[in-house]
């Protein structure tokens, strides 16, 4: 059972009483009815790739895994939708959609191992969300099993629908605290007709890199991804893979376009306008993929250095350079190594706090630096989490962002749907 007790964080798991590997909605209902009658807490889980402790077991709980519910029930090309079970791997749905000239847009970094159910539970984002939105923007309807075993269906298969409250939006991002998602109707989009083109630009200052992102988005361009990589991350990649990093480079901006409405030449123009030291566009699909690999190397390059606390804050795009500078100051003040990558197009930053291996959790200097980063994000008008969720790791900072009245509304919703507090206790709120 130990394999089903934890996610990708250092959060210590409890000892579950049992693990259920549900194969269909009826088995989820049976499990929830039993748990309700016995007053046993239930921790739902998908692929276990979460980064906030949201899928960690609690003592005496029933771990309810949806990983065996892997059917893609329907793909309806004419309606641009699919109906899937929660255990479907994100990338597998995208590949299946592309056989029909469509794509599933959300693409978290874990897309090859994360599940649709987990993505829905955390409202996951990814590189393409700057153009196509986060998981909630692709969720049309859900089938959800409530704490007492009742099955409700939200949303539908239509492009529009405003009957009743937006319960689909409520359950997406609720981290398994309100119900267990057993099926989802999701939006598919036309796949790009041409291979993407990637632009890489280097900058001598973070402010200039942030200005490039602001100019691109302010010009009305919609790249399919717009990423920023800071100096510390670039050095870690260079030490590992030898990317010939210019020592004067403070940041790299990577932008990709997958359609004629966002010409690569325009991306280059705005990077140069912002003061890029160097800017170039890929000339073929292979080169485009190679440039994007620099971004995908960020996490493994950090993991080579030690254990990593992977964080997730989001600020208004205009405050992105300032937020990166605040992260660098926190690293210097507390003597902590922090590598930062950012979805620059939507102001979402991922500081990776590196500490020595073999520890059960981050040492005090790392925790102090993380506290400072969270406080800075809220101070700059941002949020504690853009796509990873609250889980258990970020609960201590909820009051600072939500405030007591808003948090009280969250708790009333929780009490209405889960009066005995059995669903994923101690998580999210």
TrEMBL record:
InterPro entries (UniProt xref): FAD-bd_oxidored_4_C (IPR004113), FAD-bd_PCMH (IPR016166), FAD-bd_PCMH-like_sf (IPR036318), FAD-bd_PCMH_sub2 (IPR016169), FAD-linked_Oxase-like_C (IPR016164), FAD-linked_OxidoTrans_Type4 (IPR051914), Oxid_FAD_bind_N (IPR006094), Vanillyl_alc_oxidase_C-sub2 (IPR016171)
Residue ranges occupied by any FAD-binding PCMH-type domain in the UniProt entry: 12-191
Top-level taxonomic group: Bacteria
Keyword set includes Flavoprotein: yes
Cofactor list: FAD
Keywords carried by this UniProt record: FAD, Flavoprotein, Oxidoreductase
PANTHER family tied to this protein: GLYCOLATE OXIDASE SUBUNIT GLCD (PTHR42934)
Protein name stated in the entry: FAD-binding protein
